[in-house]
Amino acid sequence: MYAFLITFLAGISTVLGIIPTYFNSKYKDNIINISLSFACGIMISISLFSLIPESINYIGFSFINVILLLIFINIGLIISTYIDKKITKKIDNNYLYKLGLVSIIALILHNIPEGITTFLTTSSNFRIGLTLSLAIALHNIPEGISIAVPIYYSTGSHKKAFIYTFISGFSELIGGILSYIFLSKFINNFILSIILGVTSGIMIQISLFELLPNSLKYKNYFNTFIGFILGFIIMIICVFIFNI
Question: Is the pLDDT of residue 229 over 90?
Fold first, then answer.
């Protein structure tokens, strides 16, 4: 029960990403501009310094495995591009809403294996699991921003922003439940490596082809730069201090 509770709390911290949507609406453009570039920095940093190295760690470093990882990443890029095109056909006139939906898909894929890791770690070592969950909670907040800000400013609904961030965060508990029921018996390093590699590809595609270009649309390049650097540095600090 402690493992389930810690996994749930780590995931549900994503909901705190809704906080920027309560800032004064006269700063709307700056909030969106900085939030999108901030989320871009977060996702690029997670991919480069957490997901990709962890994927290699699971399968071992060798020339063949690096090639396999590149294939996993490209599969993620292709999947994300396909999803992006499908969503664009349905919501072509609301780019912020589309951004929110694409971010949810990417973060759910990211949070499920994260939930598996948190649950298994906490089950075997409560102290290490608690430290890991704190690290995950800290980096889930800016991930929540990448969902809540686009959803709120595209719909004007705090309720929808809350529900969508909640769904993303709750997926971490789903990872814990799956782990408890059967994944702990059947999941292996190769499968985890595939999941992490594909997820990194999805995040890179969203960052470079969605979040960054849409932040640049506001033509406040200083805000875009500051937001990206802040997100990038904050996530590097989380990765290296907490080793997530």
Answer: yes
pLDDT at 135: 64
Cα distances (Å, whole numbers) of residue 126 to 7, 49, 132? 12, 25, 10
Cα distance between residue 180 and residue 70, in whole Å: 30
Lowest mean pLDDT among 5-14, 161-170, 179-188: 179-188
- pLDDT above 90 (res 225): yes
> Domain range for residue 117?
2-242
Count of structural domains, the chain = 1
Encode the chain in three state secondary structure: CHHHHHHHHHHHHHHHHHHHHHCCHHHHHHHHHHHHHHHHHHHHHHHHHHHHHHHHHHHCCCHHHHHHHHHHHHHHHHHHHHHHHHHHHHCCCCHHHHHHHHHHHHHHHHHHHHHHHHHHHHHHCHHHHHHHHHHHHHHHHHHHHHHHHHHHHHHCCHHHHHHHHHHHHHHHHHHHHHHHHHHHHHCCHHHHHHHHHHHHHHHHHHHHHHHHHHHHCCCCHHHHHHHHHHHHHHHHHHHHHHCC
Q: How confident is the model at residue 222 (pLDDT cuts 50, 70, 90)?
A: very high
Identify whether the C-beta of residue 121 lies closer than 8 Å to the C-beta of residue 232: no
